[in-house]
Amino acid sequence: MTADRVPLVSILIPCYNAEKWVGEAIQSALDQTYRNIEVIVVDDGSSDGSLEVIKSFGDRIRWETGPNRGANAARNRLLELSRGEWLQYLDADDILLPAKVQRQIDAVQQGSADLVVSPGLNEHGCITQWGPGEDPWERLISARLGNTIANLWRSAAVRQCGGWKKDQPCAQEAELMVRMLKAGCQVHYVAEALAVARGVNPKSVWRSNRYRRSVYRSRYVLDAIRFLAQGGMLTPARRKAGGMALYKCAQDLWGIGHPYWKEVLMDARSVDNDLARSLRSVWFRHGVLYSLFGFRVTQLISRLNLWLRRRYSSPSGQETQGATAAGVPSAGE
Q1: How far lies 102's CA from each of 2, 112, 200, 313, in Å?
Q2: SS3 of 57, please?
Q3: What is the Cα–Cα distance from 125 to 243, expressed in whole angstroms?
Q4: Domains, the chain, ranges and CATH?
Q5: What tens digit of pLDDT does each residue of 228-280 get?
Q6: Which of 39, 144, 229, 267 has the fewest Cβ atoms surrounding its Cβ within 10 A?
Q7: What is the DSSP letter of 151?
Q8: Is 88 strand, coil or helix?
Q9: Are 108 and 1 in contact (CB under 8 A)?
């Protein structure tokens, strides 16, 4: 891409029952400092007032409505409607910072890339952090290769990989990125966090269904690991990342009492045959407990420790946020 080119960027917003938030999402798209954009909204059969909010933007956007088919079907329809060389997906309850598209387009003017990755923001601060020179496969397996709205996607690469998988209710962008990396797509990193995942929609499957979240994450991790192993590309760092990711999925499934945790834990051990050492290198005390007593006793002790911390360290009695609240030990545990 030469410096004098100004590629068209399609900002694509799927919407389902997001009347309270979709107006802010659309406005954040229209407020981009990068001006060569088109904003397209697909209303996925909303039963609230979302469509009226969408229509209120007039000819500043393009929009379409139809029956409810799910988020990925809506994203694929947006892909069909788009004309841009680059795609900026934006969930209807999230927002873009004004310089989001400009910063990422400026970065790829200097070279070639199929996916521009940035850290994201949520109500607690920066998430999905990643650094230049790090391995995209390792970061993707560790759920740290950006996310749907933080990244900028080359349209041709997404189309070549078949678009979004319609029957994927969780970890949708990660599953797509696995296919993109398999196809040899190149990744470029921009260190600035430029999009905000607000987490305000209580109907989000990713946030509300821990079983699906863990199962579908374990599936894309195993898909990536198998591909790398078959190609002789499963380095020790990638193996460790895979074992840790699957171990976290097993933790979450155990936490909700689902028996599938046993199968996922077996997968973690088969991916990383020295899982206990890997655990000790990240969460020392947790890893020691796992080495001495095994998985179930370690989870029980960790749950007791978490209860004690909530009981005696939190004046409000509210649940600790972040990784610890999900049953994952904080660093050093």
Answers
A1: 15, 16, 26, 43
A2: coil
A3: 27
A4: 9-205 (3.90.550.10), 209-326 (no CATH)
A5: 999 999 999 999 999 999 999 999 999 999 999 999 999 999 999 999 999 99
A6: 229
A7: S
A8: strand
A9: yes
